[in-house]
Amino acid sequence: MDTEITISGDMQTPPLKHNTTDGSDFLQFSQLQLNKLGYPQIYTWLAQRKNSIKPWSLFLNTHYIRSPPSITRLSKRIAKNIAYFQSNYFFVFIGLFIYCLITSPLLLLAVIASLGTCYKVSKWHANEGVSILGHKLSLAQLYTLVAICSLPLFLLVGAGGVLFWVLGASWFLITLHATFFNIDAIICPGEEELDKLIVEEV
């Protein structure tokens, strides 16, 4: 005896997800995680930094390298450059910090251990919560406690010297760029011609 089975219906295939590995997706993922952890201020600040990054081709364009026309104009140029390239300068600092981590294996291990501990603590806080003497600690308090406990380890691996080096190198490079980059040629080109006339008259 033959039995005929009829199968009918509409089948919908789920949309394919395209995996991308560019830096913007990673930054969006980081911002999403911070937002989920309850840090909207940091999320908003990172979003502002991302949106205000100027093109690196402009930031590193040697065509705009000019010595300041006068000492009085120098402070204004530095202020304008810092306001215009603040996000680029921030990533210069981050780049120097990453360079120090790569060239300091012990410090890199200490940072990984500290971040791993923060990740574990966030999991405990999400699942069960952590209480001390009957008081439930917030996630920010737990992170502060981890940071305090990590201080001796960071001092042991020389984090103090690395921090001062990063701050010093960042200050030097940012000041050097802000001093010699002629921002007036971009945001107000007329002032560049005025500066030339002033120099010629002097």
Structural key phrases:
membrane, transmembrane, mainly alpha, two-stranded antiparallel ribbon, 202 residues, 10 helices, Prenylated_rab_accept_PRA1, PRA1 family protein, transmembrane helix
What does the model show?
The chain crosses the membrane at residues 89-122, 142-167. Belongs to the PRA1 family. InterPro entries: Prenylated_rab_accept_PRA1. Its main location: cytoplasm. Strand 1 (131-132) and strand 2 (135-136) form a beta hairpin. The protein has ten helices and two strands. The protein has a two-stranded antiparallel sheet. Residues 13-34 have low confidence and may be disordered. Helix 5 (86-103) packs across helix 6 (105-127) and helix 5 (86-103) runs antiparallel to helix 8 (159-180). The protein has helices spanning 23-36, 40-51, 56-59, 71-84, 86-103, 105-127, 139-156, 159-180, 184-187, 189-201; strands spanning 131-132, 135-136. The protein is elongated. By secondary structure, the protein is mostly helical.
